[in-house]
Design a protein that fits this description.
Layout (H helix, E strand, L loop, with lengths): L17 E6 L13 E4 H5 L10 H16 L7 E6 L5 H14 L4 E5 L6 H10 L8 E4 L11 E7 L8 H11 L4 E6 L13 E5 L2 E6 L3 H10 L2 H8 L6 E4 L5 H12 L7 E2 L20 H6 L20 E5 L6 E5 L2 E3 L1 H10 L5 H4 L6 E5 L5 H9 L3 E4 L3 H8 L13 E5 L3 E4 L4 E2 L1 H15 L12 H12 L1 E12 L1 H14 L6 E2 L5 E7 L2 E2 L6 E2 L4 E6 L5 E8 L7 E11 L9 H4 L1 H10 L2 H5 L6 E2 L1
Parallel strand pairs: 3-4, 3-5, 4-9, 10-11, 10-12, 15-16, 15-17
Antiparallel strand pairs: 1-7, 2-6, 5-6, 8-9, 12-13, 13-14, 17-18, 18-19, 20-27, 20-28, 21-22, 22-25, 23-24, 25-26, 26-27
């Protein structure tokens, strides 16, 4: 049923629709991680034979709403967005969630047409739509995790400034989930038409209306406020320039088409896998060298990120990029050149004058990286005189810094640039990481670098920009080993071994000459709200025979839905330009072997090799 903007669903106001309180019981394990709560989809559906929790989804949503109400002076939020990344169970979950919201008295429920919206676009709509009327968003995503039957589903909550809910909110929601005895929903309410025209309204009950919104409008306008679209459009028309964007069958595909094709005029052949699929085409929507292998190969790269010597780079696209499932992560590559997320963040910082969002303000007033991300950003920030922060993993920690003035009345760090090694980059434009924003940032850097280059002359390429950066600042070799699905007890044993044997332990040197210096556990005191975060990763520091520093970070990831993931982050600084062209996994192999042996990875976990190296 397709309705006009002012039409209401008459049947919804009939006596057959009633508000119903349903008795339930607390369900264990509803503790959100760094980016919401993620479980196998059957757990959310209540069909998992090992758990059979009938009201898993409703329990969690009611716990979120109770927490949001408590945080809003006892008033239920009047306007909430409900949207997802299009993965399996997205539409069915939206319908159920909207009934719970309506029964709890949420007056305005905004749902994007088709139900699909990237996380960055949701953040933009929270901040901009109807002058920031929205008070929060329920985002259905497990980000870069696989989707489909037997795979992952997740939900995260974003606050009124567009940022992910902080630990104070998620901790309270978890506590509420342990106390809940009932939830509210609607009985007799028909599902609304999620494919209806933009502006269609559906009255769910006397106090609540669903409005179908344009998923693109506020996001595209926000991007236009950050970048010079006219200049980007002009550069994109150069005959020697081409771009290839891999949407990985996630939510970001249609947004890439809307911006890159409809706005900037690039041909549709610039897009690959940009149609969202519930199971992401049976792929893993994580934009890294392994899971974006198709794009990586088309960019003239080998699986380790080095240039493929058998590929003619003159036939390769100038700029390559990929998005994850919900469109907030990015991979950046040039012809024969993979840009690590850590380097990408540092290079964007060093070239802020190419990006109007920063140049209009005279540059960023603050930058930040997660602790496991390499120190490449720190070097640039020091040289540029920009305050630089090192935070725990999780975008919510950046949110406080971005909101320091508007939310806490403290120092203004905006415009603000931040990023994580896990392929996340963003700024204060939406208070979230933003994959497409990073692509436009690199397109802006290329545009400025080639401003004085004649149309018939060879372009300055991504690899030229990267090598110039290394020559000036040195190279921070970086890669990550992921051991996925490890037994939780074994994973904790690895962490305990590092704590017990190496923190406060003696310095040692092995036959490689690499000296173990010290180990420490990262803790964070938030400079904005004073909150404390402990046990945020274990740092093992090393020194090479020539004096160059290195480190290995171990951290248990909070983004999986089953078992544990041990992440091992490797970083080595190299000043000598003659050594900059090595592939990072090769340059770091000796360091990796030393660290793996020290923590007895194979003996404790039974894993002889990581699941993924990126």
């Amino acid at each position: 049923m397709c309705l006009t903007a002012n039409t209401q669903l008459a049947a919804s106001t009939s006596s057959s629709t009633t508000v119903l309180e349903v008795q339930t019981k607390p369900i264990p394990g509803m503790k959100p991680g760094t980016s919401g709560l993620r479980k196998k989809v059957e757990v959310w559906q209540g069909t998992d034979p090992d758990t059979s929790y009938k009201y898993y989804l409703e329990n969690f949503i009611q716990s979120l709403l109770d927490t949001a109400k408590a945080k809003n002076n006892g008033e239920i939020p009047h306007t909430i967005i409900v949207a997802g990344d299009g993965r399996y169970y997205n539409v069915e979950a939206i319908q159920l969630i909207c009934k719970v919201l309506a029964a709890n008295g949420v007056a305005n429920i905004w749902v994007p047409q088709t139900g699909i919206m990237t996380t960055p676009a949701v953040s933009a709509a929270i901040r901009v739509r109807e002058s920031g009327k929205c008070q929060g968003a329920i985002i259905l995503t497990a980000s870069h995790n696989p989707g489909g039957p037997g795979e992952d589903f997740g939900i995260k909550y974003n606050l009124e400034y567009g940022q992910p809910a902080g630990e104070d909110f998620t901790d309270e929601a978890y506590q509420r989930s342990l106390e809940i005895s009932s939830f509210w929903t609607l009985e007799g309410s028909k599902d609304f038409d999620i494919e209806a025209e933009v502006g269609s309204e559906f009255v769910l009950n006397d106090s609540s209306t669903v409005t179908i919104i344009d998923p693109y409008e506020e996001y595209v306008e926000t991007l236009k406020s950050c970048f010079d679209f006219d200049a980007l459009r002009s550069f994109s028309k150069r005959p020697s320039f081409s771009l290839l964007f891999d949407g990985m069958h996630g939510a970001g595909g249609p947004f890439a088409k809307r911006v890159l094709v409809d706005e900037l005029g690039l041909p549709e052949t610039s897009l690959m896998r940009c149609n969202p699929l519930p199971d992401f085409g049976k792929g893993h929507p994580d934009p890294n060298l392994i899971y974006a292998a198709g794009l990586v190969g088309k960019m003239g790269l080998l699986p380790d990120g080095s240039a493929d010597p058998d590929v003619d780079l003159s036939s390769v696209p100038t700029l390559g990029a990929a998005n994850d499932g919900d469109g907030d992560r990015n991979l950046i590559a040039g012809a024969g050149c993979f840009v690590t997320p850590s380097d990408s963040l540092a290079i964007i910082c060093d070239n802020w004058d190419a990006i109007p969002h920063f140049s209009k303000a005279g540059g960023p007033r603050g930058v930040a990286r997660s602790m496991p991300t390499s120190a490449a950003l720190d070097v640039v920030a020091t040289a540029r005189g920009i305050p630089c922060f090192q935070t725990p993993t999780g975008w919510k920690f950046f949110g406080n810094l971005m909101s320091s003035k508007e939310l806490f009345g403290k120092k203004d760090y905006t415009p603000f640039l931040c990023g994580e090694e896990s392929f996340g980059t963003g700024s204060d434009h939406i208070h979230e990481k933003d994959g497409l924003w990073a692509v436009l940032a690199w397109l802006s850097i290329l545009t400025k670098a080639n401003k004085d280059i004649a149309e018939d002359a060879p372009l300055i390429h991504v690899r030229d920009i990267v090598k110039k950066h290394w020559e000036r600042y040195g190279r921070h070799f970086y890669c990550r080993y992921d051991y996925e699905g490890v037994d939780s007890d074994a994973a904790n044993s690895v962490v305990d071994l590092i704590r017990n044997e190496y923190i406060g332990g003696e310095s040692t040197v092995d036959e490689t000459g690499i000296k173990f210096v010290q180990a420490e556990e990262f803790a964070y005191s938030d400079p904005v709200d004073g909150s404390q975060a402990s046990q945020q990763g274990l740092i093992m520091s090393f020194e090479y025979p020539n004096g160059d520093g290195a480190r290995v970070v171990f951290r248990l990831s909070g983004t999986g839905s089953a078992g544990a993931t041990i992440r091992m982050y490797l970083e080595k600084f190299e000043q000598d330009p003659e050594k900059h062209d090595k592939a990072a996994p090769v340059a770091l192999k000796t360091l990796a072997d030393r660290a793996i042996a020290m923590v007895k990875m194979a003996e404790i976990t039974g894993r002889d090799a990581p699941t993924v190296i990126t």
